[in-house]
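Quick log. Single chain, no ligands specified.
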Amino acid sequence: MERLPAERRAACLCGPCTAMTTAEPLLVTACACIDCQRKGGGAFGYNAFFPADSVATRGETLIYTHRFDSGRAETAHRCAVCGSPMWFTMDALPSLIGLRAGTFADPAFPQPAGFFFTRSLHHWLTLPEGLPQRKTL
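-> predicted structure:
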């Protein structure tokens, strides 16, 4: 008997903004760049990237496009009601959609494959041994 992939459901704090997928993330990252700290309001961003065609999004979002120093852009979606950061697309990864890993509310969610921009990591944060780290991207 073939085992079907489990459905993953991400949701905002108030509930109506959701993203659903049965795909496994292609990449899970953590990033301590200043932009990720400001976007999420935490010490780092924790994101999962999926094939864009494998994710169904729902709900009204506020959309903001941020242009990086490179000239490339990221377009982020937040719940229009509670403001929870939900998903984003990046010019650099046009076939992928990034979902904020915390929106899955799943303690068993995969750990990051790497940690980027450790040069701006908060001094109190100790990273797991063996986790690949880069001072930049």
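The chain has a mean pLDDT of 93.
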